[in-house]
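COMPLEX REQUEST
Ligand: geranylgeranyl diphosphate
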Amino acid sequence: MIEKLIIEKSKDFEQTLRELFDKKKTKYPPSLFHAMEYAVFSGGKRIRPILMWLSADFLGIKWDKVKDFAVALELIHTYSLIHDDLPCMDDDDFRRGQPSCHKKYGEAMAVLAGDALLNLAYETVLEALRDDNKLYASAIFLAKCAGAEGMIGGQAQDILMQDPTEEDILNIYKKKTAELIKAAVVTPCYLHKNEPVYDDLNLYGEKLGIIFQLTDDILDQKQNEVSYLKKTNRQKTIQKINDLNNEIKDTFKKYGEKAHYLIKFADYICQRNH
Ligand code: GRG
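STATUS: Structure written out below.
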């Protein structure tokens, strides 16, 4: 069952992150360390690392080869949430039902914790490259997804956009949310020789990323934010989620049983309630 697999993989991944933080504990200034640790270990679902595991499994790539990239991705995701909650961005006092990082540690420490997590992400990736430089292309891909061509670019468009159309909103979702989901699914591809599969996983990441944001719109409706749900309605949003999921199913049916977990995971995201 996909739920069991998700719980199991997220527990394993929690342990991997814990080991990294234990190694760094005495090396960072204590207040900065605590702000970083607070943000990383406050109940994140670890969706992106789990997805990377599923993609690696689908491609027949050993988890050990891509684990450091999953760590980096989760650190990048966490930094983006810390910065997104700041008063100059979304100004959110709560994250995952607890005070957001800047509410607990102050704005300065939250900015630095986000910056430090981003740096730790690339430190982790560079360490992996030292061991195996075949990972070079994966590292470039991850950096692009997280940067101005990807998530950061999407966040900038989101802030600047005036009176967006439905299509504008979906295009922003494709960048600000789907790029990190795509990174999870596509980063392992560069270790795989069969290039046609890249396109299918790319499609999977992009569609699932948009689905993820649409389900987030339904679960976490915010007053001041533009969203596809607010621009349209609940019925149209659910229809869009189902259409995107059907595109995933159509693309992956040729893989048969091998794509079972990827398909089940997409269904799980469509039906998620947290
Ligand atoms: C500030 C650099 C910078 C980027 C912002 C848009 C964004 C990137 C962050 C804002 C939060 C947001 C709306 C992100 C879109 C994706 C999303 C729904 C994130 C929440 O991801 P989950 O549910 O988080 O995986 P957990 O708490 O489980 O880790």
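REMARKS: The mean pLDDT is 96. The pocket of geranylgeranyl diphosphate is lined by residues 44-45, 47, 80-81, 83-84, 89, 96, 151-152, 155, 176-177, 213, 216 (CB under 6 Å).
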